[in-house]
Amino acid sequence: MFDSKSRYANLETYTVKDRRGRTVTVTPVPERPIQTLLGYHLLHQGQRLDHLAQKYLDDPAGFWRICEMNDVMLAETLSEADEVAIPRRAH
Question: How many CB atoms lie within 10 A of CB 64?
């Protein structure tokens, strides 16, 4: 269901009933990763987190790590920020 590099790949799904009575498969929220701060990036208009993730983490799909480091769930939340905290590249 998820790419093998995804943080959701090894999580076990479970089912719940939604308020309309339908059975829905749910993936739990993964544990927050332990990350070390690399530094801060001053955002310029039009910069996207996937581009920053490629530059600093060598993985455009790692934008979620920048979100986690800045305590936000959605990348769009950081679009109005002046600067964003950047985690060190994972080994």
Answer: 19
Q: Tens digits of per-residue pLDDT, 30-87?
A: 988 899 999 999 999 989 999 999 999 999 989 999 999 999 989 999 988 999 999 9
- Taking the domains of the chain in order of start, what are their residue ranges? 1-31, 33-87
- Residue 6: predicted pLDDT: 81
What is the model's pTM?
0.79
Find tokens 């987190």 and name the residue: 49
Distance CA 4, CA 41 (A): 29
Token pair 């829905």 in the structure block, residue: 24
Q: Give the integer Cα–Cα distance in Å for 54 and 45.
A: 17
What's the N-to-C CA distance of the chain in angstroms? Answer: 25
